[in-house]
Amino acid sequence: MKYLLALIVGIFLFINVKGLSAYPVTRTLEFTANKVEVLYNGKKILAEGDVILEKENFLLYAERALYDPQRELLELENFKLFDFTQNATILGEKAQLDIRNGEIY
Fold first, then answer.
1. Contact 52, 58 (CB under 8 A)
2. SS3 of 100, please?
3. pLDDT in tens, 75-104
4. What DSSP element (H or E) covers 15?
5. Is the pTM of this model over 0.85?
């Protein structure tokens, strides 16, 4: 009886772990802007006018942002980035922000 119960619990745990690992990891990116357009059948998102993006590590203001969800890359124009992890502010005319690791180019 104990063996049967252990086998059932083991199968249940195996199915749950296997099932959870099949789902891809997705990150939600929420922002506000005066104008938002979905381009190329959802492959890129263009936000223009008072773009605000807030995550746990940073706060971003920009005039224009082009987001590529597949690469998790933001192309920014006329931006101000507040990095809370390094207590720094970055200003610029053009840059690319990698959402995965927080690097800016």
1. no
2. coil
3. 999 999 998 888 999 999 999 999 888 888
4. helix 2-21
5. no
Residue 30 is encoded by which pair of tokens? 């929420």
**Rounded-to-integer distance, Cα 98 and Cα 34, Å:** 23
Six token digits for residue 28: 């939600």
Closest CA to 66 of 74, 78, 57, 56: 74
> By the 8 A CB rule, do 31 and 51 touch?
yes
Helix (H, G, I), strand (E, B) or coil at 40: helix
28 within 8 A of 55, measured Cβ to Cβ: no
Structure-token match 């009886």, residue found: 1
Question: Rounded distance, CA 28 to CA 66, Å?
Answer: 15
